[in-house]
Hints:
Elements: H1 8-21, H2 27-45, E1 60-63, H3 64-70, E2 78-84, H4 89-101, E3 107-113, H5 118-124, E4 131-135, E5 141-146, H6 151-157
Parallel strand pairs: 1-3, 2-3
Antiparallel strand pairs: 2-4, 4-5
Helix pairs in contact: 1-2
Amino acid sequence: MSKHPNTPLGILVAAALSLAACGSSNEAMKDDMKASASTAAGSAASTSPSAGSETMLPGAYLTKAEYESQMTSRASTKVVYFFHASWCPDCKATEDSLNADGVPAGLTVVKVDYDTATDLKEKYGITQQHTFVQVDASGGQLAKWSGTHSGADIKAKTV
Length: 159
């Protein structure tokens, strides 16, 4: 395992890992987060202007209203609408995971109320709660799926 450089970025990444892992009971997820942070720290320390050296925005779990007010600042992230219902056990489990374990860097998960967002349900052909839709900057559908329960799983399904 490589050491983090003794830079403010390295220290920040190490602190973030410690905080993010506090509530997680999933050892594999912790290992993935450490590997991602190590890669991010190494890329950020690189002086090469390659795309891999760009700093990703922290992940975010936002309501639709919060996202609409932050669309410009979140434009460089992968955006996934999460059609959530308060009465849905799978939706609650996913939300608990997102709140406890966080959302991976470069991903914005937008909580959309399944019961009231009829316009979005119609636009994306949503027929059941706990459905995820990745959208581009103009709101066009890039991918759609159901069944993921963590931020890492959601990011893995994105294109």
